């Protein structure tokens, strides 16, 4: 009865979803692509019902990058596998294109109405579904159970804050968690919280994101540009609304001779000689952040306008040449380049109560992190990184700005932090192999012979 009520609400909400997608599509045209797929209507023919389709749902950018590790492992073990990749955001779908091979399929996650879910499952007939990290939808779980499609939650995480919110909807959430075939958690703490909601946790495998390999070409280019610039560089990475303004206000409050000391007791100006780079988390905010930079009295140089690299100091013409310049990373799919370019990264999402973005990618690129007080999305990884010397924690953006600038300007401390970041990332690898083995074993347990792929 409770899910029936939920289903009615989701059915009634469909016109509002269409409106939301059209509005988001104004700034991110990717949301206007194949809109009918959200409701279970597909322009392409259904794939053969040969049992070779493995469905992976990666809602957004971070989940898609983590899924890449699992997909690579499954292709090795199941060479005939056809990948069905679904997403909930335009950035996730854009990133997911890189994972596709001939014969693979990509579509939007079906809206969680009973009709859309049934049409999705009838059209694609996946042999197994793998949800990445946090995505639990009651009708989707129930639809898979009704059709006998094993549905698992992989690389699963559940923060204390999310657990508290989920408990308020326990009447709806508990049946959905209980109906999953298996759950493989990132940490023991995640496993305990998931079990408390009735999830069938069968293993704790670590975080897939440690196994993700940064784009080597991008990393090399970023490092080369950093050396060419000849100045310390600090990046606000994957920033969220409110954090750019806090950084810019803090920078604007510094006027010469505000500086930090190097190891030789020379001083470097925090604004004039330290280069600052902002990379917003969401592409629809690129123009907004560019305008924000200028409103705070800085010139802006956008990555989209660079050709052979960022501008040299003093390269801007006119009035902009007398203003400090803040660089804006307004491109998609280039985080390895940005981490290669930066000496130190301020962790976006951690200076507002948003839980923090993924710091593992920074560590894998050898870039130490300064994080704010809010890291509940990656609580254990944040603590481990801090213990390893790959990250440090501060209370405010002002403290973060000062700590990051100081580290970027002190060569030996910076080298030690970079080595610690690299070692931290290497130490925690292995989740991909464990998760791949678990998926293959589950397929076998459901009498699906791996040789059939």
From TrEMBL:
The record ties this protein, via InterPro entries, to: Glycos_transf_N, Glycos_transf_N_sf, Kdotransferase
One GO cellular component term, please give it.
plasma membrane
Task: Site (Transition state stabilizer): give the residues.
Answer: 133, 209
Location in the cell? Cell membrane
Q: Which pathway is recorded for this entry?
A: Bacterial outer membrane biogenesis; LPS core biosynthesis
Transmembrane helix keyword on record: no
What does it catalyze? lipid IVA (E. coli) + CMP-3-deoxy-beta-D-manno-octulosonate = alpha-Kdo-(2->6)-lipid IVA (E. coli) + CMP + H(+)
Q: Which Pfam families match?
A: Glycos_transf_N
Instruction: Provide the alphabetized UniProt keywords.
Output: Cell membrane, Lipopolysaccharide biosynthesis, Membrane, Transferase
List the active-site residues.
Answer: 63
Question: Which SUPFAM superfamilies does this one have?
Answer: UDP-Glycosyltransferase/glycogen phosphorylase
Give the UniProt record's GO annotations in the biological process aspect. Answer: lipid A biosynthetic process; lipopolysaccharide core region biosynthetic process
The EC number(s) this enzyme carries: 2.4.99.12
The Gene Ontology terms for molecular function here are: Kdo transferase activity
Q: Where is the 3-deoxy-D-manno-octulosonic-acid transferase N-terminal domain?
A: 35-212
- Family statement: Belongs to the glycosyltransferase group 1 family.
Q: What does this protein do?
A: Involved in lipopolysaccharide (LPS) biosynthesis. Catalyzes the transfer of 3-deoxy-D-manno-octulosonate (Kdo) residue(s) from CMP-Kdo to lipid IV(A), the tetraacyldisaccharide-1,4'-bisphosphate precursor of lipid A.
| Record protein name field | 3-deoxy-D-manno-octulosonic acid transferase
């Amino acid at each position: 009865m409770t899910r029936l009520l939920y289903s009615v609400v989701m059915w009634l909400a469909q016109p509002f979803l269409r409106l939301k997608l059209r509005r988001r599509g104004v700034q991110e045209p990717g949301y206007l692509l194949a809109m009918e797929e959200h409701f279970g209507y597909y322009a392409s023919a259904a794939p053969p019902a040969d049992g070779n389709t493995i469905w992976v749902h990666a809602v957004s950018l971070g989940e898609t990058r983590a899924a890449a590790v699992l997909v690579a492992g499954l292709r090795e073990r199941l060479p005939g596998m056809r990948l069905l990749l679904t997403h909930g955001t335009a950035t996730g779908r854009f990133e997911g294109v890189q994972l596709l091979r001939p014969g693979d399929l990509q579509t939007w996650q079906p809206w969680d109405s009973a009709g859309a879910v049934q049409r999705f499952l009838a059209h694609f007939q996946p042999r197994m579904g793998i949800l990445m990290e946090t995505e639990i939808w009651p009708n989707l779980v129930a639809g898979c159970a009704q059709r006998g499609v094993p549905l698992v939650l992989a690389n699963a995480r559940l923060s204390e804050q999310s657990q508290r919110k989920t408990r308020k909807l326990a009447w709806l959430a508990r049946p959905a968690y209980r109906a999953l075939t298996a759950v493989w958690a990132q940490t023991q703490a995640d496993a305990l919280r998931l079990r408390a909601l009735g999830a069938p946790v069968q293993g704790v495998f670590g975080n897939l994101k440690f196994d993700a390999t940064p784009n080597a070409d991008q990393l090399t280019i970023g490092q080369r540009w950093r050396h060419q610039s000849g100045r310390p560089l600090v990046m606000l990475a994957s920033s969220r609304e409110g954090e750019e303004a806090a950084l810019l206000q803090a920078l604007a409050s510094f006027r010469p001779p505000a500086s930090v000391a190097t190891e030789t007791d020379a001083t470097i100006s925090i604004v004039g000689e330290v280069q600052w780079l902002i990379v917003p988390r969401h592409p629809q905010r690129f123009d907004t952040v560019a305008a924000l930079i200028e409103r705070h009295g800085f010139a802006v140089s956008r990555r989209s306008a660079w050709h052979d690299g960022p501008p040299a100091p003093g390269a801007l013409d006119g009035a902009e040449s007398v203003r400090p310049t803040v660089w804006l990373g307004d491109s998609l799919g280039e985080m390895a380049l940005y981490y290669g370019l930066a000496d130190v990264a301020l962790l976006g999402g951690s200076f507002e109560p948003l839980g923090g973005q993924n710091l593992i990618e920074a560590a894998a690129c050898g870039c130490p992190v300064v994080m704010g007080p809010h890291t509940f999305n990656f609580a254990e990884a944040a603590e481990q990184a801090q213990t390893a010397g790959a990250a440090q924690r501060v209370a405010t953006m002002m403290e973060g700005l000062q700590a990051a600038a100081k580290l970027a300007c002190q060569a030996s401390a910076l080298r030690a932090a970079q080595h610690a970041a690299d070692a931290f990332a290497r130490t925690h690898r292995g989740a991909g192999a464990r998760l791949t083995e678990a998926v293959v074993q589950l397929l076998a347990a459901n009498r699906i012979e791996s040789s059939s792929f």
